[in-house]
Specification:
It comes from Sporosarcina siberiensis. Its EC number is 2.7.1.35. One of its GO terms (molecular function) is hydroxymethylpyrimidine kinase activity. It catalyses: pyridoxal + ATP = pyridoxal 5'-phosphate + ADP + H(+). It contains nine helices and ten strands. The relative contact order is 0.15. The mean pLDDT is 95. It binds adenosine-5'-diphosphate and pyridoxal-5'-phosphate. The site of adenosine-5'-diphosphate has 20 residues, from β8, α7 and α8.
Length: 278
Amino acid sequence: MTMKKTLTIAGSDTSGGAGIQADLKTFQEHGTYGMTALTVIVTMDPENNWNHNVYSLPIDVLQAQLNTALSTGVDAIKTGMLSTEEVIQTAGEAITASGLDHVVIDPVMVCKGEDEVLNPGNVGAMVQYLLPKAEIVTPNLFEAGQLAGIKTPKTVADMKVAAEKIHAHGARNVVIKGGKQLEHDKAADLFYDGKSFILLEAEKTATYHNHGAGCTFAAAITANLANGLPVKEAVIEAKKFVSAAIANGWKLNEYVGPVMHGAKNRFEGTTEITLTEV
Ligand SMILES: Nc1ncnc2c1ncn2[C@@H]1O[C@H](COP(=O)(O)OP(=O)(O)O)[C@@H](O)[C@H]1O
Ligand SMILES: Cc1ncc(COP(=O)(O)O)c(C=O)c1O
């Protein structure tokens, strides 16, 4: 038996809901074989309101992991938290050398609720080294504004403007996640392939237990691509999955509630989504 191989280039979320932990659980849930190239380790301080600390790994350690994983011939790659311009460049060059088409860029800039970029130079480096390689890029509203060089989108009309600008940077398909923050009654994401705009809408779940939603969504898209789904179907299936994962999010402790990464096999078919050309 062989399995499709999926690689995540991302950070470790020690609390297990986001980062490589979310990616590996989601890859497994979709029947793909997960591999990792770790960029940073994020820890949380239980004595101090769960404050995050980010520990970077040396660049040669990242390079060695990329050499290891890519030598096996992976089917799809996802990127997540990339801490510095050097890390972004290294990831971009490894992706180019791999010659792979199935590349999902989740341009993580902040953890939820914060609005300052990890390192300001990262936005330009993502535009230069990652967007031209992206089969799909999956920014949230804040990240979309940063990549597009405009104010954070607030409406579907703003999202369309951002999607066109991000597409012009070389990403072949753009999915802007409206999520909870969009001024809209549904959890709406905008898909743009350079030709048409499609709004994917699901019921908004009233919950704080959504930690890792973005990583989980992008990892599901990556696994779906590795499994042979066309781009639009890969996004649609991932949207159904992440909606079920959020609807079944749970409380890890008083600070954080991860999404249910096991939602595909437990809750498949429990969430409906609608598609509308806009
Ligand atoms: N409360 C919610 N109910 C249903 N879907 C949601 C909710 N919040 C976010 N989503 C969806 O989850 C996915 C991840 O989005 P989001 O949480 O905004 O990403 P990120 O973690 O990168 O900020 C998107 O498809 C988004 O629409
Ligand atoms: C390592 C890592 N990657 C990515 C994220 C982003 O998580 P989310 O999917 O909730 O946006 C986080 C947030 O804590 C993280 O720690």
